[in-house]
Amino acid sequence: MIMGQADMVSEMKYECIRAKSMMSKQKGVDNWFNSLHSMNPYRGCEFGCVYCDGMSESYHVDNFLTHIRIKENAPEIVRKELESFGFSSQSKMETESLLPFLESEDAKRLRETGPPKFIIGVSGGVSDAYQHVEREHKITRKILEVMLDFEMPIFLLTKSDLVLRDLDLLKEIHDRALVNIGFTVTIMDEETKNVFEPKSATVYERLEALKEIRDAGLHGGIAAMPLIPGISDTEENMRRLTEEATRAKSEYILWGGLTLKPGRQKDYFMSVLRKRFPDNRPLIERVYQNEDPYGAPAYKLLPVNVIKEGYRLCREYNTDYRIPLWPIEGVPRINQVIIEILLRISFHIKYIQEQPWHRARPFDAAIRSLENNIEGEITLNNLIAIAERLQLNQRAVSVIMEILEHGESSLLHSFELE
Ligand code: SF4
Description:
Helix content is 44%, strand content 11%. By secondary structure, it is of the alpha/beta class. The chain has two domains: 5-316, Alpha-Beta Barrel (TIM Barrel); 336-417, DNA polymerase, domain 1 (Orthogonal Bundle), CATH 1.10.150. The chain has a seven-stranded mixed sheet. A three-stranded mixed sheet has the order 1-5-4, with no helix packed on it. Helix 2 (74-84) packs parallel to helix 6 (139-150), helix 14 crosses helix 17 and helix 14 (333-352) runs parallel beside helix 18 (410-417). Bound molecules: iron/sulfur cluster.
């Protein structure tokens, strides 16, 4: 039996649990959000989005929208995990090392010892770190305090303006490392939003929060995903979203469509659709009748390619279609520039030109190899040795060589001019 929204509200259950681990490492740096590790301060999410992927059996969380597990020991686990990666707590260094007695240059050098930093996704994996329960339990805030102590760059994705409560901390982290806050906004019409995202902040509140974040000097933008076929992938909704995001000083908009995994996620979504948007049901049934285990639609049946259309709008409104790779301590800047350009080339081949994905493989393979195997700076002198050792494809090597010589790629330019 499918549970309705009213039932869900009355049956909310909260439980404190002890987590064994917090950070999960992805196979490589996330192609959308640029994070290498991500975590969820809570299990389950009370925002109750009808399309939520977290409901799916693949995550093994029963009653995802109604039973919220609070990981009360999360901050101490995160601290231990960061130490195990070789990072140093600044407060510990102040009290347990010679740091307070060193000249400023030596102190700076000591502070910067340790492995290269990477971006940690503090929220937005499979739950929202700023759901209502955070007001009282402050697990996310305590994790941010740890991030500040270790001066780690972070990415945060939320549907809540509660994030503004922690602006003081976020500014401090940004001063020492990097903070990028993404707000998910998919539906501009508040009434429709209340059907599909019933308990999260209003669209207006999220956009206002983004503006405040940007005015405070932090990085931030919009994740416009998932867009629902026939409902939120319309020209009107996507254009309004882009206009309002630009007004809120969004630095980027990431676009993505809906996945509906067979089982709990799809069943619940279809039951709400049947009641609230019966006219849209036939289209969505057709598009997702393939029962793809990952929930992918039959792309040819989609009314709009939202990534391509979103890219066009981003160009029109002069906002980025990807999150830029902003500088991170300990990572050579040129390595980031190379990876960023390769990522953009791959994006164009797959999503804008809609070529078969294997055409992007040489670039994707080079991105993974460079991310996982290179810590020192890539130069014209060591490129050939690196290419041989990592067996990089010649097409990728030519692009890298051009970036090293001229700081840019003519291939990417030609794609972006199309
Ligand atoms: S905010 Fe995210 S995690 Fe929470 S219910 Fe909505 S889609 Fe799921």
